[in-house]
Amino acid sequence: MSQVVLEKLKERFRDAILETHNFQGNETAQVKRESFLEIMHFLKDECGFEMLLDLCGVDHLPETPRFEVVYHLKSFSRGYRIRIKVRVPEDDPVVPSLVSIWKGANWYERECFEFYGIKFQGHPDLRPLLLYPEFEGYPLRKDYPHKKRQPRIPLLKPETR
Amino acid sequence: MGLETAFGEGWITTKLEFFINWARKYSLFQYPFITACCGMEYMSTMAAHYDLARFGAEFTRFTPRQADLLLVVGTINHKVAPVLRKVYEQMTEPKWVISFGACASTGGFYDNYAVLQGIDKIIPVDIYIPGCPPRPEMVLDAFLKIQDKVQKYKLLEQK
Predict the structure, then answer these.
(1) A100 CB-near residues (< 8 Å, 6+ apart)
(2) Is the CB of A127 inside 8 Å of chain B's CB atoms?
(3) A139 and chain B: CB distance < 8 Å anywhere?
(4) What pLDDT, in 10s, does the model give residues A22-57?
């Protein structure tokens, strides 16, 4: 249904759109990080995507670039949905923040930063959101040890199963 | 027509320890520490159909300082673990603890960075109720077992 949006994107941004596909009605575009902010502005202002539904991180560990951030947009006025993906390398895990476009991106980006260590450039207050302050590391990265625990108080017995 | 009419104006003899434990076990004041979906099953146990009040434990307290039975109902993660320890420490002796459901007892299927693998890692536990969530019958059975444990409590041999 949102195929027309993908066509518009490809026509307007050409090389910045690395790949598009449509699996069971989920229109998806993989975009270059350099043009990402411009593309998102275009989607909000000219394609009518009023709402950022979700934002999440992905860790594709053996691959390069390692990380990916996935954005889901919704247009209520036109009934469109679209998914935008942007890949970021491990040595420079930075994506432009979308808080200036959709205010709702604020906590999503803080959560993504906390669990994957992906930084959002231009975020007004990029602090961890959910875990306790003593927590170290990024627990949803694939190289975070599966059995690693960080208790806040001394335990009566070891935490094994 | 209660028990008192059967005795008339007579009197009975008993041991102080037996009498105190008997009074305690039929008036358990509980503090439910509910963090997850097991709370629904706790509510159904408390409500009219299963009616925990029949066992003298209908009185839910809203501060641990007035409770003598701590029910840990639901998943405890590392973030909330110090809170649970503090709640337990605020309860006055004698006190008992029921670990309600798979998550509180072992961490359940949450074997990850965030979840404490059983509350017995931070506080002593008297009865574990398995199940995800446990049936109300299992909760009632746990209360009966706690009552047995209260009845056997030694006043003079305290921890």
Answers:
(1) A122
(2) no
(3) yes
(4) 888 889 999 999 999 999 999 999 888 999 999 999
